[in-house]
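To whoever is on call:

I kicked off a structure prediction for a single chain this morning and the downstream step that reads the tokens threw a length-mismatch warning. I double-checked the sequence; it's 127 residues and nothing unusual in it as far as I can see. Pasting both halves so you can look.
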Amino acid sequence: MRVAGREGDDVPGVATQIVQAFKAEAVMLYRETDEPFEDLRIVRAFRNAAKGFADGKPVHYPRAAAHDLEDTQAVPPDPEGKNFEWFVQNERTGRHALDALWRPQGLPMLREREPRANRPARRQHRP
């Protein structure tokens, strides 16, 4: 492994200096309080993105569950390619936003609307 420097330089020592310099600079740029490097939001976000979620949540675009899918079942991709349905339901119901990656909670499961034939008829308003 070569690091910029002269032949015979202490590579582990130079690498350690580079890492320490990076951490010091990152703390100066991103620190909001007196937190150490490991607690910076950008570092926590990167670690969450790199390792995945501790609770085993999958990482994919949100999917709308079929109206008859049980809450405990994983939501598969839509076989008809209607993977936009979660966003349609989100616009209708709650307008949930993706939370911060340094403090991830996940998005709620939203359901597709029941097919019109299965829904109760709307009441007609009469004047």
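Update from on-call: the warning came from a stale cache, not from the record. Cleared it. Sanity check on the structure: Residues 87 and 95 are 8 Å apart (CA to CA).
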